[in-house]
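dumping these here so i dont lose them again. two proteins, back to back, each one seq then structure tokens. dont judge the mess
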Amino acid sequence: MGWVSGWAQAAYRLDAPGAPAPPAVEVNGFRQEVLPEGGGWEIRVQVSAGPLGVRTPFAARPLPPSPQLPQAFRERLGRSLSASKRLDEALVAILETMRSALEYDEAAGFEETPEEVLRKGRASCIGFSRTARFLLDSQGLTSRYVIGLRAPASRELMRLEGGRLHAWLEVALPGIGAVYCDPLLSVGWVPQRYVALRAGDTLEPGDLQAYKGGRLVTRSTKDRLAFEPPQGGPCRLWARPNVAASTGGLIHGKFLGEGDRPLEGRARLEGDGLAVSMDLWEGNFFFRDLVPGRYGLVVESPGSKPLRASVVLGPMDKRFLVLYSQSLGEPGKRSTP
């Protein structure tokens, strides 16, 4: 599991004549404002991925009996839950165990049941959300479904056709409040590309079918979310930390294109006898446990000139860099400690 921190924001124009107005949303780390505008809506989304600070203790409950849970899955999840001492750890245990056991299926199946999902080993966002809620409920964690849209990463028009709806969860954490969790991606947050259309106890599209034929346009986006990948293993989920990070010297940041669109590619860091590289994830790079010194950073992406930056790192320094593609007329970098 990887960690995420920082903030992001975006603004959208949504046109869908006859559809219900999207709701205003205020949950821990996610705020959505909706303003009527000429027959449509302007939607402003703000995301903050600061530490959750959960202190509520957790004691594992017996899992539901078979055949709902295959034995191998039951044993794996049971071990993870038994090792969880806080509610946020139990939430991570459930979602990460699911993510490691299931493959994602693009085709939404509104009738997917937890039993079917775990038997097949694959599910759409509907099946992921329904199964996650079933497991959270078994451990006394209250949640409800959220259905909405995932906007494009760039400023392009998205036509609202069949299959555009996306489902995730709103989970209640005592002492913290509600947080968003997407079983496909995240624990305790969702990115600024998410637009909520409805929250409740059903995953049936119902009146959301009225959005079909509409359109969503990304007006602006600013992405300052920083991602720390796990050491020595695959990243199945990105989670907000429980406490602020206390790692040693690090250099991390984002490689962005037009409209703050994250770019794919590779980042390489050299200095003090060190030469390491990593693939960008949603435009993000992260190099940790660095000793003080001068480093050279090179970021490459298809269709973009290699971008080079020199970084001086002091003891325990943490440098966050925002780099823009030179091929799009926005050369340069911005840096914050």
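---- next one ----
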Amino acid sequence: MGEPVIQLLDVYKSFGDNHVLRGVTLTIERGETMVIIGGSGSGKSVILKHIIGLMKPDRGRIVVAGQDLSSLKERALDELRKKFGMLFQYAALFDSLAVWENVGFSLRQKTHMTDDEIRRIATEKLAMVGLRGVEDRMPADLSGGMKKRVGLARALAMEPEILLYDEPTTGLDPIMADAINELILEMKRRLQVTGVAITHDMTSAYKIADRIAMLYQGRIQATGTPDEIKNSSNPIVRQFVTGSSVGPIMTV
């Protein structure tokens, strides 16, 4: 057992009558990439928002780097968030800002760096994700894959210890999706970051994960290596990973 960096301990969360999380317990170890799989609306994004402290559980605890998020004041929580970088589902770039300004947005908000210093770091992070010479381009001039890479460069700008990936391959063709998966693996090898990804793309999950956790009906149904999940005898897991319409998972 490695060193736990993120722990969800019996976490419950409801929105009115919608009981989204019903006792989620999950431990993510330092340096591993945990991929959380599950259907649309299953609560995967809600888990990410709890991990980064944007939501508070109705019951249970979230512990990050040894700190119980529920006990932190807002200033301490903001300081803890500096450990995180996040790649949003559709990159979430600011249309009115140039690429380098997008990458350096957190640096401008949270440091006293000059524009020249921010641009230097942005250029460095863009090079890390395979983008050179695009600093002055606007998001509208970029392909979907390039936007994802810019989003990843922005996530790396503050040199985080933990990277969160929200559906990293959504909206990409299979070749570009594989390129993003390779980039995620490269960032892990190069930077030794801890990663948490949510996805329903099993090709991506199998490729980038050290371990996979299956979320269904508000609970973690199974956790294991990609091979263990791929060969699971759990009927819920098997239906999801094979994409079958027949099984215990209810379809609407």
